[in-house]
Amino acid sequence: MAVTALVLRSHGMEGLLTAVPALRGLRRGGLRVVLACPPELSELAALTGAVDRLLPARGLTPLAWPGPGEDEALHPLLPEIAVNLHGRGPQSHRVLLDLGPRRLWAYAHEAVPRVAGPRWDPSEPGVQRWCRLVQWYGVPADPDDLRLPTPMVASPAPGAVVIHPGAGETTLRWPPDRFATVARTLADEGLPVVVTGSRRERPMALLVATRAVLPPQIVLAGRTSLRELCALVAGARLVIGADPGMARLAMSYGTPSVTVSAPDGRRHRLLHETPGGGLPADDVIRAAFAALGAGVR
């Protein structure tokens, strides 16, 4: 029977996507991967092809490993290996150690001297950070192994320009009026535009559409599953937004993006917002047309 590794990565969508190469390395190394992450990411976790089971997790709250008869698929009674892809510790180390694994693979931290892992580099990009961790423990991982398969579900708007005005942190949000200006300009050029977001972000998405004088039918916020959102991004012409998770999802599908204050990458234009929302809409519009005219779609 394969050795069971419990992997802690209880961040949001961006956090899970940055851990994909490391997770795939663990799975290819013959480990049975149980991922502790928010349950709403289950569809995305399945698309990685690297996760055997999910264990619900929220931040650094204590984990509950099922006992006998609760979930036979999660046996053995305790994970043999715990892997901390959540942070540098010590709190995340202790969340995993409380389950009593035989081994903990994690970055070294002076407050948890029993963990003899590699040194943490605060300047290291997330994808490389987690690959380096598992490599230190003898598991090969390719930082470029980021692509996701397109879900077997129809895109709700094939070939659209996706505008995602929401962001996990309000400090990253670009003003809705400027998103509306971008949406209106692209729609005037004959491009199909849709506005996405969570159910909580639907009022803001409707505000963007209203101020862009676009019909409410283009607002997909709160109306798509995560799998449908993946299909939408996979078939989109361009993604525009301020959410690092959406930027990372676009990278996972090779879809060009224009992102305000989020991770950069090849085929993805990054524009830095300043405090107070000083980035003008014209800058984003120019970047959008540059991406659309680059022949990447």
Automatic annotation (TrEMBL):
Record keyword Glycosyltransferase present: yes
PANTHER family, per database record: LIPOPOLYSACCHARIDE 1,2-N-ACETYLGLUCOSAMINETRANSFERASE-RELATED (PTHR30160:SF1), TETRAACYLDISACCHARIDE 4'-KINASE-RELATED (PTHR30160)
Domain of life: Bacteria
Organism whose genome encodes this protein: Microbispora corallina
Keyword terms of this UniProt record: Glycosyltransferase, Transferase
Signal peptide: none
Protein name as catalogued: Glycosyltransferase
Residues annotated as transmembrane: none
UniProt lineage: Bacteria, Bacillati, Actinomycetota, Actinomycetes, Streptosporangiales
